[in-house]
Amino acid sequence: MTSTPMHIAVVGAGLAGVTAARALHEGGHAVQLFDKSRGVGGRMSTRRTSWTPDAQREHALAFDHGAPSFTATDPAFAGFIQDAATFGWVAPWAPRMAPASRAETATRWVANPDMPALCRRLAGELPLHRSATVTGLARVAGGGWQVLVDQVAHPGTFDRVVLAMPPAQAAALLQAHAPTWAMAAREVAMTPCWTVMAVFHQAAPEWDAAAPSTGPIAWAARQGSQPGRDAPDNDDNTATASDTQNWVIQASAAWSAQHLEDDAATVSAALLQAFQALPGLAAAEVQWQTSHRWRYSVPRNAPWAGECTAWTDDALGLGVCGDWLGGVGVEGAWLSAQALADAWCDADPAAPGHCHPSPAMFEAA
Ligand SMILES: Cc1cc2nc3c(=O)[nH]c(=O)nc-3n(C[C@H](O)[C@H](O)[C@H](O)COP(=O)(O)OP(=O)(O)OC[C@H]3O[C@@H](n4cnc5c(N)ncnc54)[C@H](O)[C@@H]3O)c2cc1C
Fold it and tell me: Nearest C-alpha to atom 44 of ligand 1 is from which residue?
């Protein structure tokens, strides 16, 4: 418990935001979450939609179209995930891999029963403002912050603000108050990812996922092969017709970058064709499909991970966390948020992992 409880706004309710918010709340601070989306999860995302093949039938569909899974190698994150598994929040997933897939050894984990579920659990009953795009931060005379949601000041003031979002979005909010941080954030490149979600007839090979080492596809996974998706107590009713199979197909970063501005129909056609060329899928027929272009999927690298896993400025009352600071991927988002919360809960300027970055550090990166 910190000696001086503060009012803290956490902007962004992906894993970094909800992890920071939960830890700050448990440290005795009064936290409010803001997210521009309708729900939590950010890039740990499941698309829910429906497919109506004819007037009599409508099938609910669910696609894990953001992070399809994650690994836990850092001891602290691995410990958190083991604890989460005992509560059923996450589960290991060992898909049968297609021939010639990239080799992998680490255990894959998925949130249960969908990818945002881990963030929903962590957010719990914390105050959450949904569909609330933060367009600016305003300093209050005497200290503290006002949060502008769609250009309008949100009621009340905050002692501190956490930005938990991809670097380009953080940079826009940092520009007026921490221009050096904004400039450094803009330097962090994120890879794009074109993703196709499709319902097929006759797409039931003897494997659940493919990670080809060549060609446009980086990852393809049969939906429902992840643990918990079709469990009887899954009241989201994600089961589909038994003669069809639902797949998420994700393009490689290089292919996505090359085709970033192509129209969705052209991209889908290319990725579906590449998918049908995978082993055992020659007869697969597309019944329904849609696509999503992630401009920011994963950071190309995390230049300050370990050395400066979260950025904090106590005098200004500003903190920044996210996967691009903690290390690439879900694990990095959690580590970054935890470092920020440790610093602000212990009020320990020497707490490991976070720092008040100096211009020299940015120059060295
Ligand atoms: C296609 C794809 C594949 C991936 N594959 C993997 C993988 O295999 N393994 C792995 O570990 N990771 C993977 N990832 C990355 C992983 O999803 C992220 O590292 C992690 O979820 C990042 O969490 P975060 O909280 O830092 O950011 P985010 O999840 O991006 O959360 C940021 C939140 O901030 C909100 N926001 C942004 N700007 C504002 C604003 N101005 N006002 C209010 N809210 C705002 C957003 O709506 C979002 O909810 C993948 C991601 C994608 C998209």
Answer: 35
User: Which of 217, 298, 338 has most ligand 1 atoms within 8 Å of CB, for mutation?
Assistant: 298
Residues with CB under 6 A from ligand 1: 11-17, 34-37, 42-44, 66-70, 133-134, 164-166, 169, 193, 195, 250, 294, 297-298, 322-323, 329-331, 333
Complex-level ipTM: 0.99
- Closest-CA residue, ligand 1 atom 32, reads 165
47-69+93-115+189-299: what fold?
A: Polyamine Oxidase; Chain A, domain 2 (3.90.660)
Listed in sequence order, the DSSP H helices in 148-222 are: 167-174, 179-186
Distance (Å, whole) CA 18 – CA 8: 13
Locate CATH 3.50.50.60 in the chain: 7-41+119-187+302-364
Identify the pLDDT of residue 12. Answer: 98
Question: Residue 300: which pLDDT band, with cuts at 50, 70 and 90?
Answer: very high
Round to whole Å and give the CA distance between 9 and 21: 9
CATH pick for 7-41+119-187+302-364 out of 3.50.50.60, 3.40.50.300, 3.40.50.2000, 3.20.20.70: 3.50.50.60
The reported pLDDT for the residue numbered 105 is 86
Angle between helices 167-174 and 179-186 (to 10 degrees): 160
Flag whether pLDDT at 1 surpasses 80: no
